[in-house]
């Protein structure tokens, strides 16, 4: 099969150690960053459907929704200030992740996680107490800073702490916790919208302060990863003690030696952003751009950001729309758990491809039904067709949740050699943030102009990215991060970039 990888000896070497409780607890605390990320994604779609929130900050949108009979059903929520409430989160996150890259490299993964947690706490309090649009957006921007720092550091932290054979499942904890955050937000939105007045949306925005505090306080007690300690020139014995604790064995010398070699290779240059442009790192650079881009054009943000608005558009009441959003979030969580259990057994490529096929078919069906049963100015879609659309949105979310949702975080976090790892992760997060901003800001306008065609638009991209994975993404399952260069040298296409690189300084390039 194109893009496959034949596993042989050295590249498939496994180090001593097991999955310890110490690793599990550390990763649970770190993955709380995903809970906050997911909550801030999920809460925005809910509060923007609440009348008290709209009347305070976006009265024109509320008037169109209730009174304007001439505007298209698809255009009632098309307002750039409303979309700015969502996209401001990612504009700030895009800027913050570049600062976070430097902090992560110089001061360690733990420091970045801690800064992200503090930003979440301050941003949550400010947003819940907002008295005007400016104050609301500043709070969202601070939450974006938290997202920029945690999205840059948490996936790296999880990948570096996890034993290679458990890395897929542990790293998927980030996506699982993100889905739990979205589910938590959906349930809170459903409950708080019944509260009178501004307490409805203030409650939804403010309750995130509790997990933010847990995350921030817990981060203080996190150990930094052995990779980071060695990279920052700390005492090798300190790194060895941490490695022994996280692996549950004193026999860690082989893995420690490889980490030291990887660190030595990484110090040959201080300009990792230039180094990643070298020919030998072409596969990693392409994946650092392509994977987060494709994740954003799956169309998941139609559901993640604006599900309640979409459901209101097709005819559901506010309460039913928020409940439907909570059901979808629950389904996403279940299938992310399924992904955690099968990703290290079946591998990354199969899940990417099968999930892509499932998403493509679902989007074609949804687009077809909406094109035929829901017009510009006609009566809202009948309940039976509205729930039919809801069912296939659930099928679509299932496909995303066990494939492109978790794997788009997992695969980039495990493919970079140490010398370009921080730069590579920053590119991944930046590309993801950049296209999230574009889609978040343009989505309601796209819905207004493309109408049902928006599902065909995103479905076309799902087809393209599934073909891309089939031909160009090698299998990375079970390969130690320090030996990942082997998968590119065995690949039918990428070997032309990394297979003919000369040996420098007596060392095989790309291999610690």
TrEMBL record:
Pfam short name (any one):
Sugar_tr
Where exactly are the transmembrane stretches of this chain? 19-39, 82-104, 111-131, 137-158, 170-191, 203-222, 285-307, 319-339, 351-372, 384-405, 426-447, 453-473
Q: Name one GO molecular function term.
A: monosaccharide transmembrane transporter activity
Q: Cellular component terms, GO, for this chain's entry?
A: membrane
Start and end residues of each Major facilitator superfamily (MFS) profile domain: 26-477
Question: Where, subcellularly, is it found?
Answer: Membrane
Concerning CDD domains, the annotation shows: MFS_STP (cd17361)
Membrane-topology descriptor: Multi-pass membrane protein
InterPro entries given in the database record: MFS_dom, MFS_STP/MST-like_plant, MFS_sugar_transport-like, MFS_trans_sf, STP/PLT_plant, Sugar/inositol_transpt, Sugar_transporter_CS
**Which UniProt keyword terms apply here?**
Membrane, Sugar transport, Symport, Transmembrane, Transmembrane helix, Transport
Family recorded in the similarity comment = Belongs to the major facilitator superfamily. Sugar transporter (TC 2.A.1.1) family.
Name of protein: Major facilitator superfamily (MFS) profile domain-containing protein
């Amino acid at each position: 099969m194109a893009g496959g990888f034949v596993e042989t000896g050295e590249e498939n070497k496994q180090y001593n150690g097991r999955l310890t409780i110490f690793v599990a607890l550390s990763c649970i605390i770190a993955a709380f960053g995903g809970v906050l990320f997911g909550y801030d994604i999920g809460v925005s779609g809910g509060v923007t459907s609440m009348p008290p929130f709209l009347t305070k900050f976006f009265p024109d949108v509320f008037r169109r929704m209730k009174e304007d009979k001439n505007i298209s059903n698809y255009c009632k929520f098309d307002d750039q200030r409303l979309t700015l409430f969502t996209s401001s989160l990612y504009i700030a996150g895009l800027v913050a992740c570049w600062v976070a890259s430097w902090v992560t490299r110089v001061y360690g993964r733990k420091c970045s996680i801690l800064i992200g947690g503090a930003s979440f706490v301050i941003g949550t309090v400010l947003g819940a107490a907002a008295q005007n649009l400016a104050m609301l957006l500043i709070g969202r921007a601070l939450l974006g800073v938290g997202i920029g720092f945690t999205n840059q550091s948490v996936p790296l932290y999880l990948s570096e702490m996890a034993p290679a054979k458990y890395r897929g499942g542990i790293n998927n904890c980030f996506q699982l916790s993100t889905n739990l955050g979205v589910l938590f937000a959906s349930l809170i939105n459903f409950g708080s919208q019944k509260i009178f007045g501004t307490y409805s949306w203030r409650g939804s925005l403010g309750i995130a302060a509790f997990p933010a505090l847990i995350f921030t306080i817990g981060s203080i007690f996190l150990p930094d990863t052995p990779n980071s300690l060695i990279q920052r020139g700390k005492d090798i014995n300190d790194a060895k003690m941490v490695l022994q604790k996280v692996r549950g064995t004193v026999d860690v010398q082989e893995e420690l030696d490889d980490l030291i070699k990887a660190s030595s290779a990484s110090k040959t240059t201080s300009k990792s952003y230039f180094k990643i442009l070298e020919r030998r790192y072409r596969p990693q650079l392409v994946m650092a751009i392509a994977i987060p881009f494709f994740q954003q054009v799956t169309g998941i943000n139609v559901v993640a950001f604006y599900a309640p608005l979409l459901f209101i558009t097709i005819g559901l009441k506010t309460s039913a729309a928020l409940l439907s959003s909570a059901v979808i979030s629950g389904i996403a969580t279940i299938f992310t758990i399924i992904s955690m259990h099968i990703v290290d057994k079946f591998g990354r490529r199969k899940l990417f491809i099968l999930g892509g096929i499932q998403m493509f078919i679902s989007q074609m069906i949804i687009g077809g039904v909406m094109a035929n049963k829901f017009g510009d100015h006609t009566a809202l879609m009948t309940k039976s067709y509205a729930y039919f659309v809801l069912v296939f949105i659930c099928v679509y979310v299932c496909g995303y949740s066990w494939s492109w949702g978790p794997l788009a975080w997992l695969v980039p976090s495990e493919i970079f050699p140490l010398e370009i790892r921080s730069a590579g992760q920053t590119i991944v997060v930046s590309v993801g943030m950049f296209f999230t901003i574009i889609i978040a800001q343009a989505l309601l306008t796209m819905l207004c102009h493309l109408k049902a065609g928006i599902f065909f638009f995103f479905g076309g991209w799902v087809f393209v990215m599934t073909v891309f994975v089939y031909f160009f993404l090698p299998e990375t399952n079970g390969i130690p991060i320090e030996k990942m260069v082997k998968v590119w040298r065995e690949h039918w296409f990428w070997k032309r970039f990394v297979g003919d690189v000369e040996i420098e300084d007596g060392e095989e390039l790309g291999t610690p």
